[in-house]
């Protein structure tokens, strides 16, 4: 499919992308000369840039095309992957982020080395690197290439084969993304992500509006009425056992999968580690949670609209979003859309590449080979590592053309190899003092073998399929592995208990709205599930059921009560808790207000 004139589209897309690159260069010029500037943006990121970067790091062409395709095929149950991330985001903002910033960590493996030992650090780096470079980064590039190929008939336009088109598009996207990550450092990534994030929100909101207008023959109200009263099962987010995301999985393995992603995944949390203060970090993390609530509207409702416009006549469910874009987006906006689409892909790729290079330089090169390496050497090593990692990913990505059907589900399953053991080790390490490094190493080896056997191994070896959804397997292994670590800690505890010591390099005063905003965020998640449920817009005998308004008003009443309690009591308790966590007697204490924790200067 071709949107408008291809020449105009490419020129205007290049203009918008060039504008983002120019602004990112201007804002970062001369600020990546030391390791703090290169790896953590000089610890100067504000909440706005953190939120924007988190949004674009998380969202890519895979979501734009894939989630809309799932909504076209079934219903809105897949929104759970995005919306329920709010629970993990709140835990990250309120509890784990103060730990990370208080400990002055650059990477998660660095924290694990202090809590356990260097062996655990190397194990986790290995899990991260293999997952990032062999699967996550290639899948990002491949999904982006597919989106471009679906929107623009590249083989026909340039007279080349489909395979050659995939290779060319992947390498173009990858090289541009690598330039941001390798030569600009984290701040360039964060700034470009924020600018692209603004574009993504504009396009994301515009497409469903234009789609509803087209569906209603020029009247947006008629379009809304059609999707709310016909084929209402499409508006249901409560997945059954037949759906790819059964509703029950939200309360089992998905909690831990999201907690890993938002609270321990290096290429996500690195943005927060570059915060200029705890308050700015918390603000950025929580704002990103509100962005996630827009996902059903921006990345799933267009798929529902496509179903109403085209029925089940599309050759592939992944054509739903590109087909809708082709029909409803004005020709003059085609270049802007392509720039936003590529920006989403670039963001995820360059963020991952930046984090992988950071871990290589700090957790492998400096930790094992050259502990005396200066900033110049670390940045040089990071750039070389980033270049090599980018080349490996670019070579692997096109090979995904030969993968079997169900590639995206396969990728989500693959992340199970490293997400659960890492979050298990992190949480046990934080909440216990005597569990030894041996326990972490045993859990990593146990998980990799057991997870493979439960998800694939029994079928490969014994022609037997374990009748448990892989998300439930996440939860089962989480519980088992926590028990293993605690048992080893009881059997062979550390000789000296681990003690967290605050070494914060930034102000550790929390954002005063952290807890009230967290309560509101949880309430909106609950309301969103009520809206997209059989008592909401999926109600078959009208717009909404008679129970809709009482349930919604009940949630709002509880939210108001909890918010009042938070402001009156919990804010002070929370501030005092953070104060005690970071208090060490020999440090200089600066005056603070009654409701704020101590600020430490070094």
From TrEMBL:
Major location (coarse): membrane
MF-aspect GO terms: D-glucose:sodium symporter activity
GO cellular component: plasma membrane
CDD domains named in the record: SLC5sbd_YidK
Membrane-spanning segments: 6-26, 38-59, 79-102, 123-152, 164-183, 195-215, 245-263, 284-311, 331-357, 378-401, 413-431, 438-458, 470-492, 513-535, 547-567
Cell compartment(s), UniProt: Membrane
Topology of this chain in the membrane: Multi-pass membrane protein
Keyword Secreted: no
Any one Pfam family match given in the protein's UniProt record, by short name: SSF
PROSITE patterns reported in the protein's UniProt record: NA_SOLUT_SYMP_3
Keyword field contains Coiled coil: no
Family, per entry: Belongs to the sodium:solute symporter (SSF) (TC 2.A.21) family.
Name recorded for this polypeptide: Similarity to Na+/myo-inositol cotransporter
Protein source organism: Mesobacillus selenatarsenatis (strain DSM 18680 / JCM 14380 / FERM P-15431 / SF-1)
């Amino acid at each position: 499919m071709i949107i408008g004139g291809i020449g105009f589209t490419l020129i205007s897309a290049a203009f918008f992308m060039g504008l983002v690159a120019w602004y990112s260069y201007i804002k970062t010029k001369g600020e990546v000369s030391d390791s703090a500037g290169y790896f953590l943006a000089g610890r100067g990121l504000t909440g706005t840039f953190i939120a924007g970067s988190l949004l674009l790091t998380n969202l890519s062409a895979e979501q734009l095309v894939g989630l809309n395709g799932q909504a076209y095929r079934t219903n809105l149950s897949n929104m759970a992957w995005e919306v329920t991330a709010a629970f993990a985001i709140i835990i990250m903002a309120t509890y784990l982020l103060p730990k990370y910033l208080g400990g002055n960590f650059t990477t998660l493996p660095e924290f694990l080395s202090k809590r356990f030992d260097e062996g655990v650090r190397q194990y986790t780096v290995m899990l991260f690197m293999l997952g990032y470079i062999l699967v996550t980064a290639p899948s990002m590039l491949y999904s982006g290439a597919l989106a471009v190929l679906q929107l623009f008939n590249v083989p026909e336009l340039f007279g080349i084969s489909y395979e050659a088109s995939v290779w060319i598009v992947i390498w173009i996207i990858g090289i541009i993304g690598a330039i941001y990550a390798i030569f600009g450092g984290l701040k360039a990534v964060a700034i470009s992500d924020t600018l692209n994030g603004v574009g993504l929100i504009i396009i994301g909101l515009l497409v469903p509006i234009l789609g509803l207008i087209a569906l209603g023959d020029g009247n947006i109200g008629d379009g809304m009425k059609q999707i709310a009263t016909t084929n209402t099962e499409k508006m249901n987010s409560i997945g059954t056992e037949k759906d790819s995301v059964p509703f029950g999985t939200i309360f089992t393995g998905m909690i831990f999968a999201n907690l890993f992603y938002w609270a321990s995944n290096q290429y996500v949390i690195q943005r927060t580690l570059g915060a200029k203060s705890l308050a700015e970090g918390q603000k950025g993390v929580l704002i990103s949670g509100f962005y996630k609530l827009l996902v059903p509207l921006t990345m799933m409702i267009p798929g529902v609209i496509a179903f109403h416009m085209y029925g089940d006549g599309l050759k592939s469910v992944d054509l739903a979003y590109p087909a809708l874009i082709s029909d409803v987006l004005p020709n003059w906006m085609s270049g802007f859309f392509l720039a936003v689409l590529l920006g989403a892909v670039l963001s995820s790729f360059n963020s991952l590449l930046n984090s992988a290079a950071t871990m290589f330089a700090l957790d492998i090169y400096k930790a094992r080979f050259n502990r005396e390496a200066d900033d110049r050497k670390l940045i040089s090593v990071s750039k070389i590592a980033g270049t090599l990692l980018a080349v490996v990913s670019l070579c692997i990505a096109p090979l995904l053309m030969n993968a079997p059907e169900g590639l995206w589900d396969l990728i989500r399953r693959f992340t199970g190899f490293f997400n659960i053991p890492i979050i298990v080790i992190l949480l046990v390490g934080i909440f216990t003092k005597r569990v030894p490094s041996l326990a972490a190493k045993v859990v990593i080896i146990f998980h990799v073998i057991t997870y493979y056997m439960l998800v694939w191994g029994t079928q490969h070896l014994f022609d037997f399929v374990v009748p448990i959804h892989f998300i439930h397997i996440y939860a089962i292994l989480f519980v088992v592995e926590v028990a293993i670590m605690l048992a080893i800690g009881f059997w062979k505890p550390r000789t000296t208990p681990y003690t967290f010591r605050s070494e914060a390099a930034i102000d550790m005063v929390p954002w005063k709205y952290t807890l009230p905003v967290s309560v509101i965020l949880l309430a909106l998640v609950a309301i969103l599930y009520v809206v997209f449920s059989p008592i909401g817009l999926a109600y078959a005998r009208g717009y909404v059921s008679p129970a809709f308004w009482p349930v919604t008003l009940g949630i709002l009443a509880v939210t108001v009560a909890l918010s009042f309690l938070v402001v009156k009591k919990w804010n002070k308790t929370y501030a005092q808790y953070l104060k005690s966590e970071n208090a060490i007697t020999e440090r200089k204490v600066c005056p603070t207000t009654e409701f704020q924790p101590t600020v430490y200067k070094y």
